[in-house]
Amino acid sequence: MLVPILISAALIAMPQGRGHGRGGDDGPPGHARGRDGVPPGLAKKGGMPPGLAKKFGSRLPERPYIAVDPRYTDRAYFLIDGRWELRKGFNVGLQAEVRDVLRMPAAPPPVPLPRVGVDLHVALFN
Question: What are phi and psi of 92, to 5 degrees?
Fold first, then answer.
């Protein structure tokens, strides 16, 4: 009867871990940041989130435009060869990138937007 109490007390008194901030890392494992605080994928693609860049296909346009319906984060319109193409069924990681697009400043679209009953938020990535 005394043994379970002693084991419980020993487990409570033990340190629970070292934490995430050791060695200069400022984020949890799997969320690596470069020295300037930008995720590695963004630095390679010039500001375009890597998941959204893949939705453009094999060739990223010189001026990539994305239009987002603020009601839905699981889809977005991509300007490809002068036409807006809807891509749907985004996973959770891609939906986070779409929410980040909604926080970006709006850009005027070079071609008319699709009519969906709501104003789409257009972002231009340089």
Answer: -65, -40
- Do 122 and 108 meet the contact criterion of CB atoms below 8 Å apart? yes
- Bridge partner list, 85: 78
* Verdict on whether the full-model pTM lies above 0.70: no
Q: How far is the C-alpha of 25 from the C-alpha of 33, rounded, in Å?
A: 8
| Nearest residue to 101 (alpha-carbon basis) of 117, 80, 122, 75 | 122
CA dist 32 and 78 (Å) reads 28
Question: pLDDT by residue (tens digit) across 97-108?
Answer: 999 999 999 999
Of 66, 54, 79, whose CA–CA distance to 125 is shortest?
66
